[in-house]
Amino acid sequence: MTDSLKLKRATYHLWTFTISKLISSFGAQVYAFAISFYILQLTGSATSFATNLICSILPRTLMAPFAGYVADRYSRKTIVIVAQIATTLAIGGLLTVSIMSGLSLIAIYTTTVILSITSTFSGVTFTSSITGLVDEARIQRAMSMNQMSISFAAIASPAIGGLLYGTVSMSVFLIMYMIASSIAIVLESTMNFTLFSKRKEVVEGEPKESMFQSMKAGLDYARLQSILMTIIWISLIINFLFGAFQVGYSFILIEKMKMDSTHFGLTEGALAVGMIIMSVYMSVRKEAKYPLRIAKWGIILMGIVMGGVAIPLLIKFSYNGMFAFYALLMFSFGILSILINTPMMVMMQKMIDDDYKGRVFSIMETMAMALMPLGMVLFGFLYDILEAQWILLASSGTLILVVLIMARPSVVRKAHPELGETEVVKVEAVQE
């Protein structure tokens, strides 16, 4: 295939990938919204609701390493399509049960587990396939458009789900999700996952690694990349410390500030708006030259925003002033999250060999998924016994300190050697 044809195909992938992600994310989030409401209306129990969340989180944590192994070992296109077909069949099964005997908690929990597993395999494989689908110059655009579609689905799905929930049956929600998933299958089947792939060919007669050996090889590969390990550790610490923000934000606004539910929803919407605006900007601007340096200062600013959530607990605001303050904070948070994530994901896509991408990304997902619930449980306990503002300020300070140490100038220069050369040129220019 000629270079011009490959670039045209890559452009097609760029849009197909984005539309596929938008449709499947939208369907999944409308379904999640409807099922959450249904469980609470059916049982009135927070425990039943939490059980469904566990059925979503736990399988992802357990299955991510296997998903990484499979993504690096087998055809990525086949994995993505099989995962999407399994999603469609699982929803079809739940629809059949609801029509024949009515929805039960066991049926919902079973479907949630299946959907969690399929989304893990699909998500890890898709992330590992970006460099095979699009040319290197447009990796940042692909990552930005992917995030844009997820953010748009996050804004639109609760609104549409809320409008539909009171007017249509649960069967209609399930049929909508099945249609969305089926469209995603059709789109994904037209994509060439090996267009720019640099994966090694399997040699006939070459001894095959066991699953355990393959997963260990992925871990060893990550360990040998010092910059990659720094990025992984920073991201894990962020995930853990953000438990303070995730728990504290809702607790402060609803419990301490007595904010109206509509206004609370609008502040959360500001987060998604910030993410979409920044995703659009990142999709059209040229690739970041020094992604680790950008991420470092972005995380420091994010730590300041996180600490800022505590300010209305220390300084008295009017109700409208408080609402505007939190909306601005969340909007800033959305912008910063994309400013940090997009350049870092582009850097990792280029840094990690195609043959190891699945395992490395799955290691990150497993550890992040394990730390997030741990952080939320720990900070949930702390908010019950300590003042909310001091927890947030301490977590914010710890986050900033960790990033300043782990992404110190010598580490940033190691990741971007050209930075040191630029500084030498500036010094010489001054001396002249």
UniProtKB/TrEMBL annotation:
The chain crosses the membrane at residues 12-32, 79-100, 106-127, 148-168, 174-196, 231-252, 264-282, 294-315, 321-340, 360-382, 388-407. Its main location: membrane. Keywords: Cell membrane, Membrane, Transmembrane, Transmembrane helix, Transport. It is a multi-pass membrane protein. Pfam families: MFS_1 (PF07690). The keyword Cell membrane applies. It is found in: Cell membrane. PANTHER family: MACROLIDE-EFFLUX PROTEIN, PERMEASE, MAJOR FACILITATOR SUPERFAMILY-RELATED. This is MFS transporter.
